[in-house]
Amino acid sequence: MLSLSVNGQSHALDVPDDMPLLWVLRDVIGLTGTKFGCGVAQCGACTVHLDGQPVRSCVLPVGAIGNRTITTIEAIGATPAGQKIQQAWLEVDVVQCGYCQSGQIMSAAALLQRTPNPSDADIDAAMSGNICRCGTYVRIRAAIKQAATGTPEILQTLVSAPQGAAP
Amino acid sequence: MIRLLIAIVLVVLLGAGAYVFLNRADTSDGTAPALAGAPVSSDVLARGEYLAKAADCTACHTVPGSGNAFAGGVPFKLPFGTIYSSNITADEANGIGSWSDDEFVRAVRNGVRNDGQHLYPAFPYTSYTQLSRSDVLAIKAYLFSLPKIAQANHENQLSFPFNQRWAMGFWNAVFFKSQRFQPDPGQTPQWNSGKYLAVALAHCDECHTPRNFAFAMKHGDELAGQELQGWRAYNITSDPVHGIGAWSDSDISNYLSRGHADGRGTAAGPMAEAVENSLRYLNPTDTAALVAYLRSVPARTGDAPVTVDAAAAPALASNNAAPGGDSANANDPGMKLFEGACASCHQWNGKGQQTPYASLLGTRGVNDVHGTNITQVILHGTDLRSLGANIFMPEFGDAYSDTEVAQLSNYVIGHFGNKQGTVTPDDVARRRKQL
């Protein structure tokens, strides 16, 4: 029996030690927001947080986690950085097909948590391991900056009052 | 004319005499020092299983993942061709089911098959010759208790003259001495057990001791490290700079049983296999004995010595998420590759993200300017199953070109070893073909 703390909840699990965390999250606990992409830590789709650090859950055996806490895309909106990132993601409408986006958001939230005002180089270093087949990289960069500064970076798709509307 | 004939006959007789003399087999049974994991009082099959694991028979005689335990067929690519391991199950037609005790003991300790043909020293009879008869027969009893597998042996592919088995008789005459383990009464029982494990059962020397022009171990250079089958078996003498003299006892025992020692390194390639198939099963008392023996091996520098910089400036100037202190500019292709493919698990400060097994700082791999083992790991990935850990890294050989792997390797050596790497695309192409 293994005990995992996921999104603030403790789970007692009967799984083999070498099962990747991603399998446990999706198939055993039922949290399917975290996606399977490549299975070899190369695409970033499966990113979750372990004590606030982004990790690739597809190559992380659950036996190696110990009592570190896990946060997934389902709960990242409850953290200040995650909340800002999600809001910016909506405002800029980053998502196209969406498959990689839970991983992108997890990596971006971790970046914002440790570097509240990231430069282009910081964003490159933090986000290079997350691949997007639709090529939404420009909007990802803009949304991260917008989440950091609160100022609109590019064309906004979600605003409280339409810009340029007749007064 | 008669004199010439007499001279020729004399030379032939002297040669034959020398051949026979030098090939004489030590016929004594030999005694083994006590091993905690295989007490003499225990059941012979349990002893045999423990000894077979300590001798790592599986590594060579079982194709990984095949499930055909001890059925042979594992290829060994050597400079002069490819040798395949043989079926050592009790199957009569393909294995060794019809071998007598004496035949088995002779094969293991003197390298001669039941049909009188010489074995190649890819089979480490050069080390196993020190085993006691009782230990060898316990291993035989264990092998014979397992399922017989009717798998035919694979023909060796060796070039002339290496395909002439009889020629090994001359090699043996020069380089092999049949002799049992001689305990050193001046040392502790623990040290003697450790030496028996190291030199006879676990045959550490076969990979870690440099070989001469004829591929025989250079006994004056014991455990000083060498490159074999495209991997570097590191210097494991007590040399504090180039060997493991600076490692603590627990560093060494953790490395042997868990495949990792913090700040020292993680076993990969053939050493990961040795940990997975053999060393992790050692009784802790026996592991401690092995450590005690290794500690006593005289310090040697060895060829191509590796000096570890455990505080490499570029890695120390980085944090877990961002690089710093690199002499390479931000568009260095090796750095770009590391950023996209490696940093998410290994981290810029080399501490390892998901697991300490992924830490790079302080390891010999990243401090070897030839990048021998890191290129192998990049090309072929790793898979380590040890005591308490199942660690895996994907292979990147298909994803990246020789040039890219060389750039990445040199970046890693610069960033984590603070040295100028010398890996060329040609080196990578060569290592790609190995393993």
How would you characterize this protein structure?
In chain A, 34% of the residues lie in helices and 13% in strands. Chain A has five helices and five strands, in the order E-E-H-E-E-E-H-H-H-H. In chain A, helix 2 packs across helix 3. Chain B is globular, with a radius of gyration of 23 Å. Chain B has three domains: 33-175, no CATH class; 189-296; 313-432, Cytochrome c-like domain (Cytochrome Bc1 Complex, Chain D, domain 2). With 435 residues, chain B is mainly alpha-helical. Chain B has a three-stranded antiparallel β-sheet with strand order 1-2-3, with no helix packed on it. Chain A: InterPro entries: 2Fe-2S-bd, 2Fe-2S-bd_dom_sf, 2Fe-2S_ferredoxin-like_sf, 2Fe-2S_ferredoxin-type, 2Fe2S_fd_BS, Beta-grasp_dom_sf, Diverse_Oxidoreductases. Chain A: It comes from Dyella acidiphila.
How would you summarize what this structure contains?
The complex is a heterodimer of chains A (167) and B (435). Chain A has 167 residues and is α+β, with helices and mostly antiparallel strands.
* Overall average pLDDT of chain B: 93
Low confidence ranges of chain B: none
What is the averaged pLDDT score of chain A? 91
What's the CATH topology label of the largest domain in chain A?
Answer: DNA polymerase, domain 1
Beta-strand percent range of chain B: 5-15%
Protein name (chain B): Cytochrome c
Keywords (chain B): Cell membrane, Heme, Iron, Membrane, Metal-binding, Repeat, Signal
Pfam families (chain B): Cytochrom_C, Cytochrome_CBB3
Domain Cytochrome c (chain B): 43-147, 189-298, 329-416
